Amino acid sequence: MTRHATIEARAWGIGAVAVSLIVAVPVAVIVTVSASDPGRAWDHVVETRLSAYATNTALLTVLAASLAVPLGVLPAWLLTAYRFPMCKALEWALLLPLAVPPYISAYAYTDVLQFSGPLQSWVRGVFGVDSVPWFPEPRSIVGASLVLACALFPYVFVAARQSFAAHATYTTRVARTLGCGPTRAFASVALPMTLPAILGGVALVVMETIADFGVAEYCAVDTFATGVYRSWLGLDAPGAAARLSLILLTIVTALLGLIHLVRSRLRSEHNAGTPHEVTPLRGLRSVLAIAVCATPITLGFMIPVATLIGIAWGNDSNDPTRDLVTHAANTATLATIAALCAVGLAVVSVYGRRVRPTRTVRLGARVAWLGYAIPGTVVAVGLLIPLTHADRVLAQLATVMRTDDTRAGLLLSGSVFAIVLGCQTRFLAVAISSVEAAFGRVGRSLDDAARTLGRGPTESLLRLHVPACRAGLVVAALLVFADVSKELPMTLLLRPFNFDTLAVRAHQFAAEERLAEASVPALGLVALGLIPVGILATTVTPRGRTAHDA
Amino acid sequence: MTPDHNDGLEIESVGFAYPRSPRLFTIDSLAISSGEVHALTGPSGVGKSTLLSIIAGLLMPACGTVRLRGQTLVGDGSWLPPERRRIGFVFQDCQLFPHLSAERNVAFGIRGFPKRQRREAAVRLLESLGVAHRADARPHELSGGERHRVAVARALGIQPHAMLLDEPFRSLDDRTAAATRDAVIGVLRASRVPTLMVTHDCREAQYACDSCWSLAFPVDDDRSRGAVLQPRTFDTPETALTLEGELAK
After folding, report:
1. Residue A2 touches chain B, beta carbons under 8 Å
2. Residue A83 vs residues A158, A197, A542, B214: alpha-carbon distances, Å
3. Has this prediction a pTM greater than 0.80?
4. In terms of Cα–Cα distance, which of A527, A515, A524, A498 is closest to A325?
5. Distance of CA A511 to CAs A44, A105, A148, Å?
6. Residues 6 or more apart from A447 whose CB is under 8 A from it?
7. What ipTM is given for this predicted complex?
8. Is B154 within 8 Å of B108 (Cβ atoms)?
9. Which residues 388-447 of A have a C-beta within 8 angstroms of B?
10. What is the pLDDT of residues A456-507, one digit of tens each?
């Protein structure tokens, strides 16, 4: 032990461990319930559905991640190393798909590609045939993978873009002076150097895919996430749902461990290059570069949004904007509260680990990371059981303390508290990731400097880290805001009575094949998601502007 | 005048080892009185910066005692956290807070006054080191010499009872280093703060300091105690530079 901890530093460490309990408690509940007798429903699941859940989940994850990598990496490299018309606009636009929840894309693509959809009808008309068997089936594993990849590739894009800008272009120029052509320099220097960052982005895609409920449900692909939901609600078998959840958690933990291992093996010391010069592209090359960058935007944003606008425009049934403001206000309120809480908790977790990096605190941080990989349905199940129990205790206390007949009601499980807590469990990792990256830019020596200037850990946080990391904290809040706005299955299960969000309304209409009604809340959701994406675009790509302006 | 060590910094039997590593160094005794500036030299990796971190409270020694003005900072079962030691520390590469101006960097450590007075005190410190005209500049806008002066001003802002300088002028060219060093040492002597300065520059040690110490492995190759501290003299031909010669340069 070379450093000595003050009481204040120990308190931060305890705070960090306490934060991780927000994730640990639902997991512990799942494990405990799994250990109990699951009943005959579990036998039924094992005999009839388990292998399909495993195969489909694996296929969906591999396909979505494989498709997301080229969609994210190629534009990132082109925008870092070259200058071509509209490159600044494309850089911003590549974040737009983050505003479209994957299940909203699934609604749109199903409408476009289905038998009665405009595209297939047009193809049949052109070729004069009654059916087109080779036409891609949207309600399949491939269709679901494509939808997920188009919606989630920005995670890979952002990670690769920042890493290319920070490290790879300068060293690529060195490689060029040593005789490498542009392609070989990219493949042998830029790509290997950026691989750890790309894997970080892929890890997010993998976790999102495994936890996805909306796309899999709508595309009729049986995965572990849909299995948990059906076991809980359809079979009324919490034991079976808990066991499926446990299997899912084990797979996710193993995958994340593997990705972490590979990243740590690949990681090397990089020297951040000086602001680099970009190579201008002209003629056919610039057209190709624009096409490569525009394709993911078209697939992930333009087609889904244009389709939804078309559906909403052609809708002449009931007033589709009815209750839209209420649902948008509910969504914004929930997302704002959850985002502010998540950033506060993330600061406690990250800073606690910084000032008190003991084994327990580090383990707690890893547990907090796991929350992002837990499907919303699993989080809901893991929280409803203890919250319902706590509500019973509170009701008994209220009965003892009060003389009238007023009932306490479901203070925790039936209020916004439950869903805000669920959002912390699920999205704390998103906030932690951003806060960690921001705090990482404040060198440890600055902590030491602050302490020699008379500032303890808490004062250092308030006067040094928070002001220096304001942008990172805003990014963390915006990312959580966007994620909470889009969240579906957990909101479905945990929302208070008569508290519908845009996501819930869109899902309810789409599930009833009322896409016209679903399109308006879906577009409202996209509009809400555009706000943080717009601010995010100006925050995460300042180096790009500098580089291009150079 | 006999130096009164109770006013200064005292180190006794301090040893240090990183986890799962052999002993890095052992300091039998080192005393720096009020107003004295001592130099600490030695090869790279021997533990000079580590010793400064121990004195500042950023690292824990394996054994030994550090006292300042008679108060035990570490040893005898007690440990005072760095923020309560009032030891100014000028780090290698300065470590100025990048999001704050020079003035606000200096004001960071000044406490117990209203904001306006803190800022005025910061400007006075910057004036004493000749960089008041750069008060509004951010660290990346300052030259190397200016950054070092601001770092010293910031460390002085806490009204330190002792000062530690870790190769403070290493990255400067000779002319700038000499000018900055003169300004800094002048201010430190005027404030009568006991100062320990790590340096690789023997001329600097001889010219600017009252005593010079060498932290190095003993010649008998007994490494069980790690490196040890020995007084260094400037009577060898390669290090003997007269004050006149230094000034003439």
Report:
1. yes
2. 18, 23, 15, 56
3. no
4. A524
5. 26, 14, 19
6. A354, A355, A460, A464
7. 0.71
8. yes
9. 443, 445-446
10. 889 889 988 898 888 888 888 988 888 888 888 888 888 887 788 888 888 8
